[in-house]
Specification:
This protein is of the alpha/beta class and 172 residues long. The protein is flat. Strands 1, 2, 5, 6, 7 and 8 form a six-stranded mixed sheet that branches. The chain has a two-stranded antiparallel sheet with strand order 3-4.
Length: 172
Amino acid sequence: MYKAMCVLVLLLVSLSLISGCGYVSKSAYLEHIDTIRITPVEILDADFAYDNASQRPYDEVIHEKLTQRFNRKWRDGNDAEFTMRIQDFDIREHSYGPQGEVEMVRMTLQIEYEFLDRVRNNMIAETDNHLQVHDYYVVPGRAEPMETREEAERRLVDELVEDLYNQLAEQW
């Protein structure tokens, strides 16, 4: 009986060493890509054209932030190409107080993007309907601090860049 148990345990250990535990690391994701080219961002909605905080057009601001973020993993080059178009910017009243006053506003960016692998000549990812949403309060004393429209737009762009990096570069 003891011999049979030892053989069974040895067999299970050997099998697990051969087959592994099933864990797959994402660190090898797109390891053949060393460089990336971020094309200029195209904005199709005139309501989202100019960043008042930085006094620059949003296409420049977003392109710069995307380049900075993706360059943490890849250098500038042509192994991969990322193209993004902002199709629509929407800002709406989202939540009201007891007297009907606006308490929360929702900003939404609808974008389309393509992430192309030029080394293997295939599409890594693409979508024509990515929505980035940011809710912000316009009154004090709520769950989150009050924000101005400029602060909310900056956060919306920062969240967009971070989400795209996590989805496309890190596969989170």
